[in-house]
Amino acid sequence: MTKINWHYEQMTSGIHIALRSEKDLVSVETEFQDVSIFETRHLGKVMRIDDGIQVTTKGEHIYHEMMAHVPIIFHNHVKNVLIVGGGDGGSAREVLKHRSVEKVVMVDIDEQIIQLSRKFLPEINNGAFDDPRFELRIGDGADIISQYNDCFDLIILDAADPDGGASETLFTQSFFANCLTALKAEGILVAQGGTPYFEPYMMQSMVSRLTQAFNNPAGIYMGGCYDYFGGSHAFIWATRNGSINTLPLETLESRVTTADIQTKYYSPEAHFGAFFLSKDMREHVDQAVKCENVDTLSMPEAGDWDDYTPETSNNSYDK
């Protein structure tokens, strides 16, 4: 008899996903959250934090490449980068591929995430933590961000969803206002916005908050996503001096050639097409930009969720 473990995550009310573990590597309770890492047949190694799938070794390159290279190639002279969250090291790995980058500061509240990533997910961080340009600060990003003024060309918010966990303080109006202060005049903020067809409230609430904090319309661009159910992933962006959009393909090709970065998913064509939104997604964004009360775009009330708790999220049976 072989014991089969299934790891479940609720995407939204009525929709759950399940990943079968071929081998459980580690399961610990840190000071801030429950963390487990396990091997799967189709998605490689998976890190699960609290009740959500955070990263897979099979598909993480799409997320991290689109998070990093789209704003860096658009900006074209990024030197100083702040990553809030990102404890697996994937975003830092991609940012540090750019020779123009002089300093990357990563802030994470949970030092054990970095330790676990070093030990069990070295293929994701791939030496980024040991790069001389990399600086790690342990603490609450909402507190640390207030220490910076006119410092960064790019801020990457690579945090878990705002569901009451360790990342909740990173999705507030005051945090985004401090991000604006920490950015340089031509600075860009990029954040993960979830799978918008199943979590439109998350994407819309972030667009609304950033629009108000930056006093400029925030927007989204899209990337593929096969390790989170839903097919597409939204990346939220906002700037101090206006909006970003797709550049001419010829310009992107020239800049990517000059950057000389090695990628698996990101390309000038992927960058160019990421900003062309479907009609329904454009309507979602426009609604959020015009929204004056962000609470109307907030996540569902607890009563809207299924009867589903972390205690029932790891089930096993004998085969």
From TrEMBL:
<comment type="pathway">
    <text>Amine and polyamine biosynthesis; spermidine biosynthesis; spermidine from putrescine: step 1/1.</text>
</comment>
<feature type="domain" description="PABS">
    <location>
        <begin position="4"/>
        <end position="240"/>
    </location>
</feature>
<protein>
    <recommendedName>
        <fullName>Polyamine aminopropyltransferase</fullName>
        <ecNumber>2.5.1.16</ecNumber>
    </recommendedName>
</protein>
<dbReference type="GO" id="GO:0004766">
    <property type="term" value="F:spermidine synthase activity"/>
</dbReference>
<keyword id="KW-0808">Transferase</keyword>
<feature type="binding site">
    <location>
        <begin position="140"/>
        <end position="141"/>
    </location>
    <ligand>
        <name>S-methyl-5'-thioadenosine</name>
    </ligand>
</feature>
<feature type="binding site">
    <location>
        <position position="33"/>
    </location>
    <ligand>
        <name>S-methyl-5'-thioadenosine</name>
    </ligand>
</feature>
<feature type="binding site">
    <location>
        <position position="64"/>
    </location>
    <ligand>
        <name>spermidine</name>
    </ligand>
</feature>
<keyword id="KW-0620">Polyamine biosynthesis</keyword>
<keyword id="KW-0745">Spermidine biosynthesis</keyword>
<dbReference type="InterPro" id="IPR035246">
    <property type="entry name" value="Spermidine_synt_N"/>
</dbReference>
<comment type="function">
    <text>Catalyzes the irreversible transfer of a propylamine group from the amino donor S-adenosylmethioninamine (decarboxy-AdoMet) to putrescine (1,4-diaminobutane) to yield spermidine.</text>
</comment>
<dbReference type="InterPro" id="IPR001045">
    <property type="entry name" value="Spermi_synthase"/>
</dbReference>
<feature type="binding site">
    <location>
        <position position="108"/>
    </location>
    <ligand>
        <name>S-methyl-5'-thioadenosine</name>
    </ligand>
</feature>
<dbReference type="InterPro" id="IPR030373">
    <property type="entry name" value="PABS_CS"/>
</dbReference>
<dbReference type="Pfam" id="PF01564">
    <property type="entry name" value="Spermine_synth"/>
</dbReference>
<dbReference type="InterPro" id="IPR037163">
    <property type="entry name" value="Spermidine_synt_N_sf"/>
</dbReference>
<dbReference type="InterPro" id="IPR029063">
    <property type="entry name" value="SAM-dependent_MTases_sf"/>
</dbReference>
<feature type="binding site">
    <location>
        <position position="88"/>
    </location>
    <ligand>
        <name>spermidine</name>
    </ligand>
</feature>
<comment type="similarity">
    <text>Belongs to the spermidine/spermine synthase family.</text>
</comment>
<comment type="subunit">
    <text>Homodimer or homotetramer.</text>
</comment>
<dbReference type="Pfam" id="PF17284">
    <property type="entry name" value="Spermine_synt_N"/>
</dbReference>
<dbReference type="InterPro" id="IPR030374">
    <property type="entry name" value="PABS"/>
</dbReference>
<feature type="active site" description="Proton acceptor">
    <location>
        <position position="158"/>
    </location>
</feature>
